[in-house]
Amino acid sequence: MAKDNKSAKKNKANKAPGQISQMWTVYKMTAQQDKTSVLWAALAFTLVLGAFTAFNVAVFPGNVVNLVVFIIMGAMFGLIAAMVVMGRKAERAAYSRIAGQMGAVGAVLANIRKGWRAAEMPVAVNPRTQDAVYRAIGPAGVVLVGEGTRSRVKVLLEDERRKVSRVAPGAPIEFVYVTNDAEATALPDLSKTLYKMKKSMSRGEISVVAKRLESLGMNIPIPKGIDPTKLGKMRRG
What we know:
This protein has helices at 2-33, 37-59, 64-98, 104-109, 150-167, 190-196, 203-213, 228-231, and strands spanning 117-118, 124-125, 132-138, 141-148, 173-179. By secondary structure, the protein is of the alpha+beta class. The model is unreliable at 218-237 (pLDDT under 50).
């Protein structure tokens, strides 16, 4: 038992530095790609620390002990705020690096939350051009996301719209283009775009529509050379 406890402690000790090292590597890469990330993180830290300090001065004027306690608390919460900012920046930088690659949209949709149901596998793919369509179901209805070249993706989107309308008549259907043109939605902005869409379906309606769309045989394989599983492992910071 003593040996088991010792080895367990050693494993924990080995894991911690690895995780910290990994986070530090991600933050360094983010800082190199986005020069403003460190500035925004420092600003978040300063604002939180300043807020705690100002609150103490206003409520407990002249109390040195309270001032020290609030500065320590402010520094701790400020560090958390800075880490959140860097995490968001790291996610955006990661998506920017894979933008334009097939399967990138799936990596974003795999991480979408807040009442949305989406898969990292496309529902339609042109095997010759590798243009693809992904489907997300949520408060805004059924959102079909096109990836590739707009002119070719539009044909795939319209074909998928007809399939959805046949299986779930009356369900709102929206298009989002993550394509190679100036009017397209940037990959890092895809999640934000979906979250900002006008709500038109309740949770119950989302569930009903999702079940009906299961009959379409979604999630067909991505063409060779694409590894959406690896891309989908990215998580929010």
